[in-house]
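Appendix C reproduces, verbatim, an entry submitted by the partner laboratory led by Prof. M.T., so that reviewers can inspect both the input and the predicted structure.
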Amino acid sequence: MDLHQPAIVRQWANAGLAVYAGLRPVFNCSGTMWLVMLVGASAIAQETVLPFIGTDTVTVQRDREQPVTYNGRILDISGESLILQRSGITKTQVFRVSQITQLTFLRSSEFEAGLTERQVGKFSRALRHFDTAIETELRDWVKRELQAVAAKTCIMMGDRDAAVRRIEAILETDRRSRHASLLPLVWDERLLSEECVSGVASDLQQQDAPAKRLCAASRLLNDERHRGAAKSALIRLSDSSPPRIADLAKAQLWRTALLDDPMELSRQLKTWQSELRRMPLDARGGPQYVIACGLQRQHQHDQASVAFLWMPFMSPTDEALSALSMLEAAHCLKASGRVSEAATTKRELLSRFPKSSAAATLRAEP
């Protein structure tokens, strides 16, 4: 597991720690195809004063070696790296975020309260707690992590524009931040307006706000009046931005092939799938969705159903897109003759995302 994987906060009441659980897919194609979630990954929390050396723990797994846990004090998490001051050792140690399977440290009472409120769906109250925690936090890297948690909360409550502003704040002090992958981009033009981030033509020119530019381009890409400008903005972002932003911009450009160049789709799908495999797991949701749409158009329904199920099980923060992914997965399962699994997927959609436009579409189906 690693910190690139999507995170779900788990509360360890007895330990007083915040631990994120990462998810990794395992596909079992005998009978029913399911996603098995293996628990791992990162944590974000702390008190409002710097912890003593030894209060933080980082578990690292390199390649196929056994996991090793280090104690000490986390000095920074930025870009794709974590810097740890080891207990009893003067020299600091740098780990790739992708190597980390578990990370724990003390969290503030405000952080804990925010997580509790979010768990029961009280998003506005959760945000107030997170903002209080940010104001009293002394370490910049923890502030960024708190902003990321708050951004995810904004997406969960449907305020995607607020999430973009918070991610922009993260990028101001860490332009290579992995949290850029949280941006609630538009990956399907069929979503309702209220289920999408906003974007106007002038946003495409905001050179000092890459997150806003990227979101606006994703929103305007299907608008014939602005498609050319949106595509140009995406090309510039893919050529000159840090990796996380660049990868998302490139994947957004895949959508133009679905819109403009269906004859080349078969060849391009192989290229996209190759590019997807090198992306961090928590950056794959939207790109995987585009690939699923391409596979669906090629009538590769089994593969498409697997690809559509990635987002609702691995990166379900954006409920509108996750719901649409489940609906399309159900359609693909039915088309491939897996009627029972299609019915199960539809029931799961109605249970998990009852207020989504995809759920409304499903209810209206004969």
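DSSP finds 13 helices and seven strands in the chain. Additional entries are available on request from the coordinating office.
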